[in-house]
């Protein structure tokens, strides 16, 4: 087992759900996201969606914590969160969205969420050693 703060990693994963709840709500980008994807709120089983999403969130928080190490410096963690969010996640979405003919607006919404997710992970893991 890597030498990381498991509780901080769990809190980082949970924080992603708070960000997602706000990010994809009608207050921010929910209406645009639904219009861009064609997804209606009643088409999916919420338990399955949220349960699966949380497993992937735990994986991403854990792997990010492993990459940062046991006592990362806050500003270095934030820089790393931005690099991972923009350089890996957003760029990968960009490639997939280009080939699947998805809109640039959808890319900005989804990639923006994940960039924010990794910065929040970075703040939590950078402050909580």
Rg measurement, Å: 15 Å
- How many structural domains? 1
N-to-C order of helices and strands: HHHHH
Q: What is the number of helices?
A: 5
Total strand segments: 0
Structural class: mainly alpha
Shape: globular
**Main sheet record:** none
- Cα end-to-end separation: 16 Å
* Low confidence ranges: none
What's this model, at a glance?
With 129 residues, the chain is an all-alpha fold.
Describe the structure.
This protein is an all-alpha fold and 129 residues long. It has one domain. Helix content is 77%, strand content 0%. It is built from five helices and no strands. Helix 4 packs antiparallel against helix 5. It is globular and about 40 Å long. The two termini are 16 Å apart.
Topology:
Blueprint: H1 6-23, H2 30-37, H3 46-68, H4 74-99, H5 104-127
Helix pairs in contact: 1-3, 1-5, 2-5, 3-5, 4-5
Key words describing this protein structure:
mainly alpha; globular; 129 residues; single chain; 5 helices
């Amino acid at each position: 087992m890597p030498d990381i703060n498991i509780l901080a990693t769990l809190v980082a994963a949970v924080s992603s759900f708070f960000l997602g709840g706000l990010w994809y709500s009608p207050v921010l980008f929910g209406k645009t996201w639904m219009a861009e994807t064609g997804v209606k709120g009643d088409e999916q089983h919420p338990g399955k969606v949220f349960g699966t999403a949380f497993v992937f969130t735990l994986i991403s928080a854990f792997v990010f914590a492993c990459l940062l190490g046991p006592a990362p410096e806050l500003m270095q963690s934030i820089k790393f969160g931005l690099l991972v969010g923009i350089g890996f996640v957003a760029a990968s979405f960009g490639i997939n969205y280009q080939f699947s003919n998805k809109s640039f607006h959808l890319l900005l919404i989804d990639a923006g969420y994940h960039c924010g997710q990794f910065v929040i992970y970075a703040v939590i893991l950078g402050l909580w050693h």
